[in-house]
Amino acid sequence: METRADLNQSTLALLEKSDISEEGISAITITAEKSPYFAELLNDAAKKNVSITLNEKQQGTYTEKQSNGKIVVVIDKSFDPGNQNNGITNIDKNPIIFATVLAHELGHALLPGGNEGTPANDPAKAAITGDNNEGVGLTTEYIVAKQSGLGAPQTGYMHSDNGQGNQPAPGTLTALLDDAAIQI
């Protein structure tokens, strides 16, 4: 197995044992060549034995911490560029979007504040925890998109919401994230 980008052998093995299509793996490795941050996240995922799997179309994208401590990243099959008729036209035009969705979930899986918080009895506290967790995912997704050269209108939108809102990053956040992407 040849090492591509800055991905180590265990990372390539992680991708090859997943159910991601060849086109999806290609999109991931191309993005890792352009985004050192994404390559680092992937290598860290392999090191921490994170599993990556595809979910049925329109069944959601999420990160799950199992009771045994294992972390599983689940990506909606619609995002995989090798999936025929995925129904998401921007992925047909730019498969790097698939990699940014994976980056979003790796942010949840690996970064502090990405998937934390205890169930809150207070709805306001629960909303704050959810916003913080999504902030980590969105920031990760945005940095990888910027480093990989994904331009407007794709950069600054959450691709991982599968077309259910494509929430734009606020202008001030976008400027801060641009600075962070350059520095990483």
Features:
single chain, 184 residues, mainly alpha, 7 helices, 3 strands, 8% strand, globular
Overview of the structural elements:
The structure is a single chain. It is built from seven helices and three strands. The chain is mainly alpha-helical and 184 residues long. It has one domain. The protein has a three-stranded mixed β-sheet, with helices on one face. The radius of gyration is 16 Å and the shape is globular. The relative contact order is 0.14.
Q: What's this entry about, in short?
A:
GO terms for molecular function: metallopeptidase activity. The protein is mostly helical.
- Residues in β-strands, percent: 5-15%
Number of domains: 1
Helical stretch tally: 7
Reported for the largest beta sheet, the result is: 3 strands, mixed
**Uncertain parts:** 162-166
Morphology: globular
- How many β-strands, per DSSP? 3
Helix content: 40-55%
Q: Assembly state here?
A: single chain
Reading the helices and strands in chain order gives: HHHEEEHHHH
Cα-atom radius of gyration: 16 Å
- Termini separation: 28 Å
GO molecular function: metallopeptidase activity
